[in-house]
Structure formats: structure tokens, C-alpha cells
């Protein structure tokens, strides 16, 4: 299991394409991606973003 970081764009928005690529690479390496874990940023995210993280991860 590996915590997956959430990448951001320079504008401050979530880099969803980068996030999906990171989750895919993590899974391809044989690790279970762990999202919305305590990697420092999760308490700063709103509920809608946390829910989208889960949805994006499920769709991979």
C-alpha cells in the first residue's frame, strides 16, 4: 500500500490528469493506492474534492 499524493497545477487547481497517471503508476508497480490519507493536504480539501478523488480512483 502506498499513499498517493495529489498534484496541483500552477493555478492552484487539482491536476486531475496527473493524479490519474500517478494512481495508475502506483497500481502498475503492484502497490495498492491509498488516497485521502494524511499526506499533509487532505484536511485542506473540501468534501467535493475528497469525493472526486475517490471517484477518480474507482474509475481507474
Percentage of β-strand residues? 5-15%
SSE order, one letter for each helix or strand: EHEH
Question: How far is it from the N-terminal to the C-terminal residue, by CA?
Answer: 16 Å
Mean pLDDT: 91
Instruction: Extract low-pLDDT stretches.
Output: none
Q: What is the total number of structural domains? A: 1
Q: Count of helical segments?
A: 2
With strands numbered from the N-terminus, the spatial order across the biggest sheet is 1-2
Find the count of extended strands (DSSP E, 2+ residues).
2
Radius of gyration: 11 Å
Name the overall outline.
globular
**What characterizes the major β-sheet?**
2 strands, parallel
Report the helical percentage.
40-55%
Question: Would you tell me the structural class of the helices and strands?
Answer: mainly alpha
Structure description:
- The longest helix is centred in the middle third of the chain and has 13 residues, at 16-28.
- 10% of the residues are buried.
- 42% of the residues lie in helices and 7% in strands.
- Strand 1 (2-3), helix 1 (16-28) and strand 2 (33-34) form a beta-alpha-beta unit.
- The model has no long low-confidence stretch (mean pLDDT 91).
- It has helices at 16-28, 47-58, and strands spanning 2-3, 33-34.
- It has one domain (2-58).
- The chain has a two-stranded parallel ribbon.
Amino acid at each position: 500500500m502506498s499513499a498517493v499524493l495529489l498534484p496541483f497545477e500552477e493555478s492552484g487547481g487539482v491536476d486531475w490528469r496527473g493524479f490519474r497517471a500517478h494512481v495508475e503508476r502506483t497500481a502498475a508497480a503492484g502497490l495498492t493506492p491509498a488516497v485521502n490519507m494524511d499526506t499533509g493536504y487532505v484536511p485542506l480539501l473540501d468534501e467535493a474534492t475528497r469525493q472526486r478523488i475517490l471517484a477518480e480512483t474507482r474509475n481507474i
